[in-house]
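To assess whether ligand presence alters the predicted conformation, the chain was also submitted together with D-malate. Input:
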Amino acid sequence: MKINKNFLDLEESYLFSTVNKKTREFAASHPDADIIKLSIGDVTRPLCPAVIDAMHKAVDEMADEKTFRGYPPEQGYDFILEKILEHDYIKRGINLTKDEIFLSDGAKSDCGNIGDIFATDNTVAICDPVYPVYIDTNIMNGRKDKIIILPCSAETEFLPAIPGENDKVPDIIYLCFPNNPTGTVASKAYLKKWVDYANKHHSVILYDSAYEAFITDPEIPKSIYEIEGAESCAIELRSFSKTAGFTGLRCGYTVVPHKLVFDNVELNSLWRRRQSTKFNGVSYITQRAAEAVYSSEGQKQIQENLSFYRENAELIFKGVTEAGFKAFGGKYSPYVWLKIPEGFTSWSFFDELLVKCNVVGTPGSGFGKMGEGYLRLTGFGSRERTIEAIERIKKIFAK
Ligand code: MLT
């Protein structure tokens, strides 16, 4: 038996596991430290009442022989697919059909699994800094040497440049807006350039819009399908995690339009085949929970939570700016991307913040080489702890 040697090309551990390990070690050696975690983007507010009510009801249905449900349809029950279709797309003028939406246990899994339907010799364009799942899963699939890095820096507002005429053409292009980790958002005009590029070169865009719910400006697109031509070149990945606090419940969805045809094959049929073989669907209780997100009470309640996290991010942005840091993001995103002081690396500044303030961030270099010199803080904490963290940072770093 031989192992999949591609795994040996990965960093020893996943970024957030390393951050957690270092935090645990620090806590063990400093038992009195009152540590505030603003590292992984995990929500802290409980699920909203509309979602909880729907789940209680679904649990009761599962307890009764007459309403009990076994395996769910792999793609999702109609009741949830119809809500997603209507609310997230049709209402916004995007014409998709129910069978183009695939419910799943979250965008992270879909981001990784979608690679199954593409040949291993495809070239893949990935931004730097980036959500590490895109890089790691392509390495696992044997595409290490096929990765084309799209560097993103403050000079270009962390937007990757569209490849030029003489540049290598990527077959697969990962884009994420609002961006994790930098918090950057993309305009329609900018995304149109990518869509035109992908259609011209017959590339596929994997558009991660897990943070779309943080966008409040109607001019900023929430979906890639708001861009004309995207349905023939883009797959969209979405999540209930950040939108409705489902990080512990697990639900997301991926849109694969029928117009995506490569090698004379619809990607929709390949993804359906992949999912029906390797995935057994989202639990009935979770699907009812997701459905409740679209009720009028659900919408009102999740918006309250989203505003709360947005305000946290704004407070962090303001606080670190007052402490003398240059910061990015924090507006239509839960993440604040902080330029760290001269003389530190991302990891040495992570240590400095942990030791001096007992605050945990995520080192920018964990998101790629271009992230060196930065640190990410999240707005998903409680208000009290977020304010406390800002006060500590100001006390230590403000001149
Ligand atoms: C993050 O902190 O970047 C995210 O929470 C990770 C994720 O969504 O998997």
